[in-house]
Amino acid sequence: MAFGFAERVRIGEDHRAQLSFGDGAVIVGDVRQDRRPPRPGEVTHSVTVRVENVGAHYERSRDHGARIIMEPTDFEYGERQYTAEDLAGHQWTFSETLADVAPEEWGGTSVATD
Questions:
Q1: Which sign does the torsion angle of CA 76, 48, 20, 38 carry?
Q2: Is the pTM of this model over 0.90?
Q3: Is residue 51 part of a domain?
Q4: What is the count of structural domains for the chain?
Q5: What is the CATH number of the domain that holds 22?
Q6: Distance CA 77, CA 70 (A)
């Protein structure tokens, strides 16, 4: 609830769920067998979710008790982002596009697609 996901489908014996978010979805699984939550101070993966308004999303997450890791920050590559931790210790970054900035302007490289 803190991040604005809505449960859409429960899979199996409540060991997985599909969560909807805007026009997309994410499937999350519980801790079992070889899947373990991160230990304190450990980051095991990164998930970035695009949102329309980082400021409003940040306030919702904070108000629902999410632990904020990084306050909303504007980056040279044209994104405003913040990072929060869920109750299991997983970190989520939420990102809003502010401007379409060419990768060469911030140190990246454009890759041609044919």
A1: negative
A2: no
A3: yes
A4: 1
A5: 3.30.720.110
A6: 17
